[in-house]
Amino acid sequence: MPGSTAVILPGTGSDEVFVRSVFAAPLASLGIELVAPPPPTGGDVVAGYLELLDRCAATAPGPVLAGGISLGAHVATEWALRAPERCAGVLAALPAWNGDPGAAPAALAARASAELVEREGLDAALAMSTAGIAPWLAAELDRAWRGHGEGLSASLRSAAAHRAPELDRLRELDVPVGIAACADDPVHPAAVADAWAAALPRASVCATTLSSFGTDREALGRAALLALLRAVTEERAA
Known about the structure:
The structure is a single chain. Helices cover about 55% and strands about 15% of the residues. By secondary structure, it is an alpha/beta fold. The protein has two domains: about 5-100 and about 165-235, Alpha/Beta hydrolase fold, catalytic domain (Rossmann fold, 3-Layer(aba) Sandwich), CATH 3.40.50; about 105-160, no CATH class. A six-stranded parallel β-sheet has the order 2-1-3-4-5-6, sandwiched between helices. The longest helix has 20 residues, at about 220-235. The chain is globular and about 50 Å long.
């Protein structure tokens, strides 16, 4: 397995607590240290993530595994393209689009959430957003959104406007990449994960399901790591 340290970034409106629930145990089983920094707040979330990766890589004993969930996967991949000499590989869980976000479901959801928070206030927005959804997801949203505080809306808008790496650009990334998808996730379509894998020179995809993820958060982390192991193994076999 490449790298002894993994720096994993949360997705839009999420937090480091969720990252740890997904990745801590799967990474520890392979002897990899997890660094899960809290997300920057407000409209500078993407630039803040890139700076976090720079700082964490500067203090690591060697090249790091960069990774993330949704927006975090986009930014980690972008950083790997910028600093391949400091990146041992990428763990990309639930990539949501490539290039311009346009009408991608995750981007539309982030914009709608930002508008709801601005119009109704945080408490009312949370009550409306968590009505009827799985209790575990409602609890995650409540904690993470409150943690973002007054910067939540700006962070959501920044994420929804951010360009993910273009497929042509992904073809230039010469590190192993493990991609995790949920086959039944309409917000992070599995087709996007497949398109990323087809474009990347050294990548594999492993899928789980939202129902599995709901009862076992680590299922997503295991899928990303299994995909990375496959990418490394296939590369060695070739």
